[in-house]
Design a protein that fits this description.
The complex is a heterodimer of chains A (404) and B (127). Chain A has 404 residues and is of the alpha/beta class. Chain A contains twelve helices and 13 strands. Chain A has helices at residues 17-23, 42-61, 75-89, 105-116, 134-140, 163-173, 246-281, 310-316, 337-341, 346-350, 363-383, 385-391; strands spanning 5-6, 69-72, 96-100, 120-124, 145-151, 176-180, 199-203, 214-218, 287-290, 300-305, 320-321, 323-324, 352-356. The two termini of chain A are 43 Å apart. Chain B has helices at 5-12, 64-77, 82-85, 90-97, 104-124; strands spanning 27-34, 39-47, 53-61. Classes of the chains: A alpha/beta (404), B alpha+beta (127).
Chain lengths: 404, 127
C-alpha cells in the first residue's frame, strides 16, 4: 500500500484523471485556448461554447438554470460576492445579517468586514450536534434582516443543515438566503428548483475539479441582484469581471458532470467505509464522534480522542494525511472554533481529528488507518499525564492548572 | 509544520517516559501547563544524598515539540546537581531542538517543569 494514505478529501481532492484529460484540451495552441469573450473569431467562439457547456453541467447537478451560474475563483470569492454583494445592493431593506458561529472563515470574515461598514451581524450558536436550532434562527430574524448565510455541509464535522426549512423561513421574512455549498455539491442532493435558496457558493476542488475555480448561483426567479465586488470588463453579466479561465471552467464542468453520474453510488460506498472506520475506532476508551450522527455527509468523520493532544496525534499518524480539528498546525495554536461552538472543552477540541474519505479511498486504507490510530493512541496515552490522572480517577476540572 | 530531525527523533523515541513511585522520598515532581492550552508536562527527578539528580522521567500531553522538549530535559538534568539543573534555559532547549518561534513556549514549559520539580524537592526537604 502506498503511504501516506490520503484522508483529507475535505481539504481538497485530487483532480479526477477524466477532468485533467479534459482540461488539457483547453490550454495549448493545438487546443481551444481562446478568450471566451472574443467575439471576432472562432477561437473565442469555441472557448465560449466550452464555457457554456460547463455552465450547464454545473447547473445540472443542482437543478438550476445555466444563466444562474456565475464563475468565480472559488467558494471564498463566491461567499464574499454573495454576502457583500447582496448586503450592499439591498442595504435599503436593512443592515442586519445572520450567520452561525460554525461557518467557514470565508463567511465569518466577510461578516466582520461588513460590520466595519456599519452592518450588524448575529452569530447564531449551534446545538451540541452542530445543527442550527430553527426556533433560535426565527427568533434572531428581524424586519431589517437582509441576508442569512448558512452552510449546507460543515467542513470540519460534516453535519448537514436543514436548508429547505431555513429557506422557507427566509422567504417568509423577505430575507435573502445564501448557502455555502463548497462541501455539499456532489455529496448531497441539491435541488434549487425546490429549495428557497437565493445564492449558493460552489467550489471545484472539493469534488475532483481543479483549484482556483468556483461558482456562485444567483437566482433569477425571483431575481436576486448583487453589487459587483470585482470591476472590469463586465463579464458574467457584470457580477464578476475578469477573463474566464476556460480550462478551469471546463474542468469544473466535467467534475460536476461526473459527480451527478456517480454521486449516489459513491455515497453508498463512503457510508460503508465510514462505518468501517468508526467501528474500528469506537471501542477505544474515551473516544467521541463530533457532530450529529445522522444529519451528516458520508465523507467526513470528526473524532475526539480524550487525553491526547491533536498535533502530536497528527505526528503519530504520519502515514495518514488527516487534519486536526484544531488549528494547531497553523500559527494560532487555538483549538478549532467549530468544535468549541459545539461546546467541546478546549482540551477535547485540541484532541480532535477529521478523517475525510473520498473517491480513491479503499477498504485496505481504512483498515490500515484503524491499526495506526490504535497504535498512536496507545503510545500517546502511555506518555500522557492526563491519561494517568483520568485512570487514577482525578477530575481534571478540579486541578488548579497553571495556565501559560 | 516541518519539524527538525531532533524533534522527530525525541518524539519517535522519547527518552525516559514514565513515572517514579509517588511515595519515594527521593523523588520530586514538577507539573506545569494546562490541558486547555494544549500542553501539560510532568517531570519527575530522583535525587541522591549528594543532591545530584540520578534519574528523571517525564510524561507529557502536548505537541511534538513539547514531547521532545521534555524528553530532552530528562537527559540533560541527569547527573546534574539541583543548582546546575536550575541553570538550564529555555533558549538552550529551543536551540538544541531548532524549535520554530511558534513552538518556543514548549521550551519555556520544559524550563518551568525543571524549576517546579526542584522547588518541589526543596519544599519536601526543607531546603
Amino acid at each position: 500500500m502506498k503511504l501516506p494514505i490520503y484522508l483529507d478529501y475535505a481539504a481538497t481532492t485530487p483532480v479526477d484523471p477524466r477532468v485533467a484529460e479534459k482540461m488539457m484540451q483547453y490550454l495549448t495552441m493545438d487546443g481551444e485556448f481562446g478568450n471566451p469573450a472574443s467575439r471576432s473569431h472562432r477561437f473565442g467562439w469555441q472557448a465560449e461554447e466550452a464555457v457554456e457547456v460547463a455552465r450547464s453541467q454545473i447547473a445540472d447537478l443542482v437543478n438550476a438554470d445555466p444563466r444562474e451560474i456565475v464563475f468565480t475563483s472559488g467558494a471564498t470569492e463566491s461567499n464574499n460576492l454573495a454576502i457583500k454583494g447582496a448586503a450592499q445592493f439591498y442595504h435599503k431593506k436593512g443592515k442586519h445579517l445572520i450567520t452561525a458561529k460554525t461557518e467557514h472563515k470565508a463567511v465569518l470574515d466577510t461578516m466582520r468586514s461588513l460590520e466595519r461598514e456599519g452592518y450588524e451581524v448575529t452569530y447564531l450558536e449551534v446545538e451540541a450536534n452542530g445543527l442550527v436550532d430553527l426556533a433560535k434562527l426565527q427568533a434572531a430574524m428581524r424586519p431589517d434582516t437582509v441576508v442569512v448565510s448558512l452552510m449546507m455541509v460543515n467542513n470540519e464535522i460534516g453535519v448537514v443543515q436543514d436548508i429547505a426549512a431555513i429557506g422557507e423561513m427566509c422567504r417568509a421574512n423577505g430575507t435573502i438566503f445564501h448557502v455555502d455549498s463548497a462541501q455539499a455539491a456532489g455529496k448531497v442532493d441539491i435541488d434549487l428548483q425546490a429549495l428557497k435558496v437565493d445564492l449558493m457558493s460552489f467550489s471545484a476542488h472539493k469534488i475532483y475539479g481543479p483549484k482556483g475555480i468556483g461558482a456562485l448561483y444567483v437566482r433569477r426567479k425571483p431575481r436576486i441582484r448583487l453589487e459587483a465586488q470585482t470591476h472590469g470588463g463586465g463579464h458574467e453579466r457584470g457580477m464578476r469581471s475578469g477573463t474566464l479561465p476556460t480550462h478551469q471552467i471546463v474542468g469544473m464542468g466535467e467534475a460536476f458532470r461526473i459527480a451527478k453520474l456517480e454521486m449516489a453510488e459513491e455515497n453508498q460506498r463512503f457510508a460503508v467505509l465510514r462505518q468501517r472506520l468508526w467501528d474500528g475506532i469506537k471501542d477505544i476508551e474515551q473516544v467521541y464522534l463530533n457532530g450529529d450522527a445522522s444529519h451528516r455527509v458520508a465523507g467526513i468523520t470528526n473524532i475526539s480522542f480524550n487525553y491526547v493532544e491533536g498535533e502530536s496525534l497528527i505526528m503519530a499518524l504520519k502515514d495518514i494525511a488527516v487534519s486536526s480539528g484544531s488549528a494547531c498546525t497553523s500559527a494560532s495554536l487555538e483549538p478549532s472554533y467549530v468544535l468549541r461552538a459545539l461546546g467541546l472543552t478546549d482540551e477535547l477540541a485540541h484532541s480532535s481529528i477529521r478523517f475525510s474519505i473520498g473517491r480513491f479511498t479503499t477498504e485496505e486504507q481504512i483498515d490500515h488507518t484503524i491499526k495506526i490510530v490504535h497504535e498512536a493512541i496507545a503510545k500517546l496515552r502511555e506518555m500522557s499525564p492526563l491519561w494517568d490522572m483520568y485512570k487514577d480517577g482525578i477530575d481534571l476540572n478540579s486541578v488548579a492548572w497553571v495556565a501559560h | 509544520m516541518a519539524y527538525s530531525e531532533k524533534v522527530i527523533d525525541h518524539y519517535e523515541n522519547p527518552r525516559n517516559v514514565g513515572a517514579f513511585a509517588k511515595d519515594d522520598p527521593t523523588v520530586a515532581t514538577g507539573m506545569v501547563g494546562a490541558p486547555a492550552c494544549g500542553d501539560v508536562m510532568k517531570l519527575q527527578i530522583k535525587v541522591n544524598d549528594q543532591g545530584i539528580i540520578e534519574d528523571a522521567k517525564f510524561k507529557t500531553y502536548g505537541c511534538g515539540s513539547a514531547i521532545a522538549s521534555s524528553s530532552l530535559v530528562t537527559e540533560w538534568v541527569k547527573g546534574k546537581s539541583l543548582d546546575e539543573a536550575a541553570l538550564i534555559k529555555n533558549t538552550d532547549i529551543a536551540q538544541e531542538l531548532a524549535l520554530p518561534p511558534v513552538k518556543i513556549h514548549c521550551s519555556i514549559l520544559a524550563e518551568d517543569a525543571i524549576k517546579a520539580a526542584i522547588a518541589d524537592y526543596k519544599q519536601r526537604h526543607g531546603g
